[in-house]
Structures are given as C-alpha cells and as structure tokens.
Amino acid sequence: MKKLIRRILLLIFIFAAAFGSFVVYQQYTQKTQQTDSYETMQSGTLAAVRLKYLTDNSNILRGYTQKMDVSTMRGCITPLSQEHKLSIQIDQAENVGQVSYEVRGLDGTRLVEDGVISGWETDGSTMKTQLQLSNLVDDGNEYQFVLCVSQKEKPVYYYSRIIYLTDEHTESLVGFAHDFWQASIDKNSDFVVNYIQPDETMGTDDFSYVNQHSRSGMITWNGLLVEAGTVETTLTELSDSQASITLTYPVTISNGTDSKTCMVNENYVVRFRSDVLYLLDFERHVKEQFSVAAPVYAKGALQLGITDEEVSKMASDDENIQAYVYDGQLFASNEKDNSLSLIYTYQDGAEDKSFLDGYKLQPIRVENSGDIYFMAYGYHSRGNHEGQVGVSFLHYKCETACIDEIFYIPVTFSEEILMKNMGTLAYVNNESDLMYLLYQSTVYSIDLSSGEKAQLAKASSAGSFYSNKSSSLIAWEEGDEGYAGMIRIADLSTGETYRIDAGEGEFV
Questions:
Q1: What are the E-state strand segments in 412-472?
Q2: Do 147 and 185 belong to one domain?
Q3: SS3 of 418, please?
C-alpha cells in the first residue's frame, strides 16, 4: 500500500474549535481549465461596504456570511463626526434588502444600540446614507460596529471599530499621510527629508522595501517614472492625537525602457502634538505583479521582480516539479518541459485588491506525478466558501487538471488571527487516517473518519515541543521548562514513543 504522509500547518485556535465540534466538510471536485491549469472560481458576489471618512476610497470592509467573534475583529477603525454620524456606502447593491446595525462594546458582550437603517440615497448600484448614532457612545472609547446587510435574503456581516473624539485631529493626521504619499510620487524631496531619519541600515538599490531610515531618493523612487492608481486608505488605530494609517495603491514603474506594474502598501504612524505633526514610523512594501504568461528566467532561476515577499516553495522527491506561492497564487513548474502553470488563485480582475491580503496558500506535498497537496487559509473572497474564514485542504490532480477539496474547517475569529498563528505543526498519516495536532501544551490524535480524539502527549508549555523537518518525529520535555528530567520522542508514522532520562541530579 502506498503511503502518503501529508504535513499540514494549522492554527492553534482551529484546534480549539475543532475539538469542541469537529466539523469537516467534503466538497465536490471542481474542474479546471485544461490549458491554464487553474481552478475556475465564481467571482465575488458580496456587496462592498465602505465607512467613508475624508476620502471616497477609505475603510472598505469585507463581508462575512457567518457571524464572527466580534472581539477578534480589529481590521479598521472609523471616526464618527462631531454630530455622531457615520457615512456608509454600499456598492454592488443590486441584491441588497434590509440593512441593520449594532453598536457593541469591544468584547462584543454589551449591546449599546441597534436598529434598522432607512433613508438610503440610490445611484445605480450604489447606496449611501449618513447614519445618526446616539450619544451613548462615550468620548475616546472604541466600540464595535456591526452592519448586517441582507443579500439574496441571506445575512452578510461587516465589521469595524468606531470611535467618537471631541478633541480630535484625525483630518490632519490622515491628511499628512496623503501629503507624504503625494510628495513621494511628485519627487518632492524637500518635503520628505523633513520627516525621515536616514541611516546606514537601509540600502540605495532595493525598492521592494523602504522605511523612515531610507534616503529621500529611495522614498521618492530615485528617478524612476511612477504613475500611481487609486489610493485606498485604511485607518487601523486612532486616538485624539495619533493615528496608524495604511495606503494601498497600484503603480506603473518605468525606467524609460521597461515598465512594471506593482502593488504598494504604505504604513504610517503620525502624531499631532503642540500644533506640529510628527512622522513616528513609515514603511513601504512594493510587490511586482507576476505574470505566468511571460515568466522571466535568469541563470536558470525564475525571476519574480520587485518584491520583499518570502516565497513559499516545495519540490517533488525527484525535484522535477516545483510548487511556488507568490502574491497569493500557487504556481507549479516542470523542469523537464520547462513549463510554468498557475494552479490556484483568488485574484479576479474585477475584484478589489484590498480583499487579497486576507488569506495565504501553503504547499504541503508535491508528488513526482505533478499532483500537489496544499492549503488555503484565511478569508475566502470567492468560491464555495465566499465570505467565510477557515482552512481548506486541497488536492490538485495534474493528470485531469482538477482540484479536490479534501476537507474544510470554518472558524469564527478574524483572518488576521488565523494567519498570524499559522505555523504550528500538524501531521497526517494517510495509512492510519490520523491527524496529530498541537493545541496549547497538548498533542492530540484525531481520527479523520470518526472525529474521535485522544491525548497523545502533554508538556508544560507549547514551546516545549520540537519536531524534525519532515514532522514525522516530535519530542517534548516532561517537567518544568528548562529543568526537565526526561524527554519523550514520538514517531508519528508508526505511533511508537521513546524516552530519554537525565541522570540523577541532572536535567535534559
């Protein structure tokens, strides 16, 4: 019998949800286009919601088709006007019915106010309104705002924090970020140089990442011709005197001969004090848009262009097939026929790019046949799980160019938490149909057929566990961390365990 050992990265929090109610969804096979070898997914169907402040392109919200744990939803924060009003815009609103809202405390337990929103202004497929909130929102305190939009008679939820500030400088803080951005595009070094602290930690030839310690020439694109597209503004933190602001926009960069299309993400921390604005922090990440239709090779290596992204990759045992994850897309190359294929992506030409940073892909195993096992985890903006946060384990079949979803685990906490905590090792033995998962300080085995679980190992902390590169062996200390008298080793491919004892009066 052929053994297939699949390694899976799963989030600790998933384990808690799975143990409480182990739910696995089996999905049907989805055909892919034979010529391009990627899964054809339905375009996003959910309405786009903005809580507008100062600009038309601010604080766009993701839609969730399941109720989320409100306390984990910290994507953006929106200031109320001095009259306690909130500007709401819904795009792609053709199928929108009733719209209601809730204002809750940050932990989600206390309901401050709720109601149904009326008085919408309609312009084509766009709905706009100014929502008047009560004065129950205290000055300087953050609250959770939940918008429930009925779409095709099904509820879709949108989340943002809100804050009311009587003595606020938000307009100046956000305006400064836009002024700094404009100065960099206009190559206005005289403005930029007043707010940066250049030093030797940053180079002068890598545009993929610049920060406050870069030279002004790098921040102003160092002579390159730059044409910027629409800027999306997101407020991530806000007080009466300080704001964290993210600007996201596409650019076309040219040196006079060649041009490149890139996505740019800029993060600002700005403070207002004594009528003076201070730039406390600045970072810019630039990622060139990769085209599978025109790959570039140099010295036998695939060139991704301008990027500081770490590429996740995995090879088959014979090293003929390589799987790559870049820019939220899964690619496969074949050394024998020198081909490159796009296997899986959520990207859609009609889709807002701001939705594409809420998920990740991870190759798990690459077969010599060209089959690839991989995971998609985070916010699903398209496809069968549109509007959900969860982990999907998928199998790409090279011979038929089909993708099977082997299982899917939904969660109700934010995609940011999911992606941040991914990396805890788990191990699946296909012969025994057992999955081994680390939850907090305990390793469990889960029978994928029945959902039954059993405790395999327990340590003083999750950090006491170690694994080899293939994840087939795990080891853990038994006893107080740093003062353990014994180490246990488990071979997950066989289920056997071993122990190593310290000598008397010694620790391992």
A1: 425-429, 434-439, 442-447, 453-458, 465-467
A2: no
A3: helix
Structural domain count of the chain:
2
What is the three-class DSSP state of 287?
Answer: strand
Residue 117 lies in a domain: yes
156 and 55 in a common domain? yes
Pairing of strands 142-151, 242-254: unpaired
CA gap 508, 506 in Å, rounded: 7
Sheet of 77-79, strands arranged across: 77-79, 154-163, 142-151, 96-104, 111-116
Q: Over the stretch 295-339, which tens digit does the pLDDT of each residue have?
A: 555 445 566 667 777 777 889 989 999 998 888 889 998 888 888
Domain closes at, from 102, 133, 163: 163
Of 86, 354, 92, the C-alpha closest to 231 is: 354
Q: What is the pLDDT of residue 463?
A: 65
Domain closes at, from 237, 271, 288 = 288
Statement to judge: residues 251 and 198 lie in one domain:
yes
Phi-psi region of 183 (alpha: psi -120 to 50; beta: other; left: phi over 0): alpha
Distance between CA atoms of residues 102 and 310, nearest Å: 40
Report the DSSP beta bridge partners of residue 476: 465, 488
User: Does residue 4 fall inside a structural domain?
Assistant: no
Mean pLDDT within 435-447? 70
CB-based burial of residue 128 (10 Å sphere; 0-12 exposed, 13-18 middle, 19+ buried)?
A: middle
* Sheet containing strand 321-326, strands side by side: 312-315, 321-326, 329-334, 339-345
User: Rounded to whole angstroms, how far apart are CA atoms 383 and 380?
Assistant: 7
pLDDT tens-digit profile of 121-139? 999 999 999 999 999 999 9
**Angstrom distance (rounded) from CA 449 to CA 494:** 19
User: With DSSP H G I counted as helix, E B as strand and the rest as coil, what are the percentages for the chain, rounded to 5?
Assistant: 10, 50, 40
Query: In which domain, by residue range, is 212 found?
Result: 170-288
Q: What are phi and psi of 53, to 5 degrees?
A: -145, 120
How far is residue 259 from each of residues 87, 145, 187, 252, 326, measured CA to CA in Å? 38, 42, 18, 7, 20
